[in-house]
Task: structure prediction
Amino acid sequence: MTKPRVVLLRGHNANPWDLRPWEQLTDRFDVGCLVTGSNRYDLSSLRLPIRRVRALRDLFPRGPAGDLAVKGPGDRYLGLAEALAGADIVHSAELGLWFSRGPALLKRRLGYRLVVTVWETIPLRSTYRTARGARYRAETLGEVDLYLAATERARECLLLEDVPAGRIEACPPGVDLERFSSGARDSAREQVVISPGRLVWEKGHQDVLRALAALERGLVGEPQRARLLVVGAGPERGRLERYAADLGLADRVEFRSVPYERMPEVFAEASCMVLASLPIPLWEEQFGMVLAEAMAAGLPIIASASGAIPEVVARSGALFAPGDWMGLARALAAGPLRRPSGAHARHDPELVERYSSREAAERLAGFYERLLSSR
Result:
């Protein structure tokens, strides 16, 4: 019997941490992902069939000049109708983006069901989008058969975007629990705090540096020393390095860009994880995959109450107000830095399992089967 064909579209953002659950669906569905020549992430570890497809961006030189050049005409897939011919389900992500608008325009002609995962937690509607984004939103909104909200906050966002409640289902992402779970840590080693995320202002790494400086200077009790590992890459690296030196922390702060496949090793060497995200006008933390990964690794979690973080963490972490670096320092002093460095956190096992790739795969399979049975 022929398996139903599922095609995944993520524009230039196909990545292994998002797509991992679909690896577990290949026995029930003919799953494949369309990947452009300008894709931003390494997919060599992904155990999914990949079909190369061109996008308009691929015709321009790499780098900022090419990024600017494609903004004029707007990006799009080239030959998308041929790539989607014969699909039963096409699964994209987010409203107002070219890689969701493309399959929405072809849906009625090609006859597939369209699913869109939504992480976005701010209802931008038309007012807070570009003119092109507003048009893409309008062209996509009514064509989607099922919206999968990564969080309850994303579901509420969709309701305010005028999506009928009956077309929305909760579907949090999933991580490979076995990959991220680790054995016993060395309790005799120094305390290591990790701050993962792209090196941009809104990820709040600067607040983690301030908190560690406050700890060392005894601003929240007895002075405490810890090593900080900032994991990521981005335009703020130089300034963050200068700031660490300015605060007297240069010898205890390391900046490291780590391939996704090596992240379990990073979690295994850490004492706790901090996610200090800050909201900006058109973005707030939408889920924070590192939160699920830290739970799987048994790491204590301290995070800002930005966006969907409180919902995702639930009772499995300590929260502080975004930007409150003294609050972060107090949370570190009162919690993880007083524990043996090798101690595991006791996260809610049901919550950890909810964020597993196997549970995510089962949710996806159920939604796909429901859509196919109603054709």
Remarks:
- The chain has 15 helices and 13 strands.
- The chain has a mean pLDDT of 94.
- The domain at 5-174+356-373 is CATH 3.40.50.2000 (Rossmann fold).
- The first strand starts at residue 5 and ends at 9.
